[in-house]
Amino acid sequence: MSRLIFFFFFLASLPLLAQKGRLIGQLTDAQTGEPLPSAAIRVYLNDELLIGLVTDMDGRYDLSLPAGPRLKLMASYLGFQRYEKRGLRLKEEEVLRLDIALKTLDDAVPEVIVESFSDKEADALRLSRDDIQNIPTTTMSLESVLLYTAVGVANRNEFSSQYSVRGGNYDENLVYVNGFEIYRPLLIRSGQQEGLSFPNPDMLNELAFSSGGFKAEYGEKMSSVLDVRYRRPSRFEARASGSLLGGSLYLGGRTEGNNALTYTLGARYKTTQYLLSSLDIKGEYVPRFLDLQADLIYDLGKNWQIEAIGNYNTAQFQLIPEESASTSGLYNYAIRLSSLFEGQEISSFNTYMMGTALAYSGKLKVKTIPEKKLTIQENSRHRILFSNYQSQEDERIDVINNYRLEEVETGLGADNFGDVLGTLAYGETHQYARNYLTANVIQAKYVGAYSYERFNDSTFTESKQLLKWGLTYKNEFIRDDLKEWTSFDSLGYTLPFDTTAMPVFEYIRTDTQLLTHRFSGFLQNTWEYKNDRHFLRSTLGLRASYWSLNEEFLLAPRFQLYYSPLSQHHAMSDTTHWSKDLTFKLALGAYHQPPFYRELRNLEGEINTSVRAQKSVHILGGVVWDFSWYKRKFKLISELYYKHQWDLIPYDVDNVRIRYYGDNLAKGYITGWDFRLNGELVKGLESWVNFSLLRARESLNGVDHKVYTLEGQTIDTSTVDYVSKPTDQLFIFSMYFQDELPGAEWFKVNLAFTLGSGMHYGVPKDNIVARNLYRYSPYHRIDIGFSLSLWDRAKKAQEAYKDKSLSLAMAEQALKKDSKNPFRYLRSAWLSLEVFNLMAVGNVASNTWIKDFTNTSYAIPNYLSSRRLNLRFRLDF
């Protein structure tokens, strides 16, 4: 009877098996686009091998498969990572094209060690060079793009690449390049002095950024991690660009053979003289910024690799001020500060960095258990890094300011509108500085990793485990020779009026030399499980650190959890796959930040060697939603976070200069909500929208903070427990939008927009009780670029070779061999017209404080640059 039933089922299934579909495609190298001949293609039905073949010399395959049932396709090639696609289903007589780009195993070797964030961490920001190359920016830095693409990031100065994240200052951010920790000069006091940051955009392969809640493998900072990985070209490539603000040159390539050398070289030059000419202070500006970099990777063998990275960066700035005029106030009251200057300001910041890394990748161990349909893979990787960072900094300032503060007429209908009504103050200030600093940081670091992966082909489940550990030693030497003073003279006598006092308003003198040692280490385990319905990833880690100066030992446990309920989707071709629509994240942990050097120095220049680490506990929850709208992919991220902080070192911010109080004097908290939406508003062009709400508060120990509010004509004083931090902002909105003309993809528009509420500040020398009582005006800026494609070899190849059997890579190769084409070696050429600060908004960088005859202080804003045009070109080879 059973045989008869089986026979009828067999007859019923024959028509289904007879229904056929066709699957065609091409296998290529993901990095080079070259076809992969003789690659293995296998198709499974109900876990049984249905058909297997190899690709032809052009990497193509053509399969006749049964229509209806769900199939599993696997593609493999020696030296490349395996590709697998499940739930593949064809319709009757359907011809489905599936092109597959395989990644090399060699490419994965160093990335596992220096990898910043896994693709499974759906909330982490990942950007490539192509994603950011058209963003109009004045700094020529990678960091400037974070304002428009990352959540919780703020920047209020277009001259600076510094940024704050979720209520922290710039010193609370970690920056890595290829696993090497990056430092910056310490004496910079204004964005005008700041040169080029270390990460080179032309050399970028990918950057990853986390706004908080990062893993234990990253160092002792409280806010964020920026991890940059440079390019690993497989063939020669080059880029040249230039504009009114400077230019850059990039060369990259790889030699042939088993012991190949991969190289990337970058040179950048920047001058902001054109932008500085729009400032209120008129005079002679001479800014010269240069950055040279080289990254060399040599294959010692199949499992060994050595890397050498070097950087020379110089920032030279000279200002000979002549005069300035700045007006501030409201419609019913306005004041004008006019100044005549004598003297000059000269600053020089020279930094050097050399790093070497030795990487070893163990042989991949693969074990199969046929009866259980299990595949087990094991691998280990190790990396040792040595680096040396040196900084030689000096600033020489000797400027006399003869000023006059006047009240001006504001009535629009008045005959004397804009005229002077009276003089509030006049006098002279003399600013003098001779500051010299030398910093040297020697670092040795070891990172190891062991991965264990388990695949069950019968239950379609995957289980992975990644164990990482590391040790770091730092030797830090600081020599700081600081001498600066400011005198303030009004009406011919020096304030305060005291015949026994020196005629100096502020005097700082210190000569410090420090040699310290830091030790840190971490242990971290990541576990991942996936089946057809669920994806779960958890990371538990512990970080420990010790600093010889204050002899403080710290432990910081950290935990991250990602969960995705998998859902099924049907593509236009009616194939199916499982994908993560929603990803939920939970992160909590301790993020302690030991002081470096500036945190030790208080406002009077005195060094406190007993300062402890600033401490913080973070908790973060969020959701990531991947969705499609009008057949275009979008990603929405929403995160809530809370940071409890203690042993804080209070600070004031003046322009980009952070001035610490030099002791653990405060506690505080930061809470907020971040929202990001990015996707293809225009097909093929990704745009970004970010919105953040923030509340950053602190309380100085033993201080009853007061706030002053105006009630009618009286000032009401009330006591509060917490006051605003200098970096507190109610909201931040930013957007980066890309567009192109329909049917004219050769013309693109790139718009970068940001709007943020003002940060807080207080009265100098009186910012303790009524702390950070005032706000700067909101920061509002629009930069827009119009780009014209002069040459695009890929598009020309598509136009010239209509034969669909040719891959794009093969078509481009044919175009390069056309000796009649003068642009055959040029990959692309772009010309852009950029408008910075389109609305000519007067954003404020800092304040100049002036006292009138009654000893009342006035804050006169120092405005940033106005509207400027920029012409830029870019050539890719």
From TrEMBL:
Residues 127-220 form the TonB-dependent receptor plug domain. The keyword tRNA-binding does not apply. Gene3D superfamilies: Carboxypeptidase-like, regulatory domain, TonB-dependent receptor, plug domain. Transmembrane segments: none annotated. Pfam families: CarboxypepD_reg, Plug. The keyword Signal applies. GO terms for biological process: siderophore transmembrane transport. GO terms for cellular component: cell outer membrane. This is Outer membrane receptor protein. It comes from the Bacteria. InterPro entries: CarboxyPept-like_regulatory, Plug_dom, Plug_dom_sf, TonB-dep_rcpt-like. Keywords: Receptor, Signal. GO terms for molecular function: siderophore uptake transmembrane transporter activity. PANTHER family: HEMOGLOBIN AND HEMOGLOBIN-HAPTOGLOBIN-BINDING PROTEIN 1-RELATED (PTHR30069:SF29), TONB-DEPENDENT OUTER MEMBRANE RECEPTOR (PTHR30069). It comes from Saprospira grandis DSM 2844.
